[in-house]
Design goal:
176 residues, 4-stranded mixed sheet, 7 helices
Amino acid sequence: ADLCSNFAAYWRSTFPFTDCIDHIWFVGVLLFFITKAILYVYTISRIKGKSFQIESDIWLEIFKNIRKEQPKKDVLLVGSNDTQSPFTVGIRQKYIVIPAEEIDFILRHEYCHALRNDVARKVIILVFSCLNWFNPLYFLLKENLSAWIEIACDEAVTENFDERQRKKYASLIIKS
């Protein structure tokens, strides 16, 4: 302990601005803490004000099953138009925030498959796969056909999107 106090005394006498560094550090700690606290309060208020609770959806069913496995009552599943990726926030009341636009994109994509009758196309591909089980060239073609169906669906979904929506949709495809 004596060695440390001698070192501290030597340090302070050699570098007279040491007290100033302590004050700068403390002010930085306070500013950092205040900034993070304000950001937290702002985020919670945005979630409470602009998010919507997901009340019926496959997301909610999965969420309920997870909660049955590990019960915790103070967690809400909400959708938000203000976020681009899922996150969890909250100390007392916790929120799992899902991007609403992602839900919208996913549903648009799957609905487009239904509109274009892509399931029937995939059944036909399956029938041809059964008939051509021995043909390696057909299996190459089959992979291309499935990709073409997905690409055609993506093109139909994004047809009326603006550039920002197309970029978000593309990032969702990459994440998927």
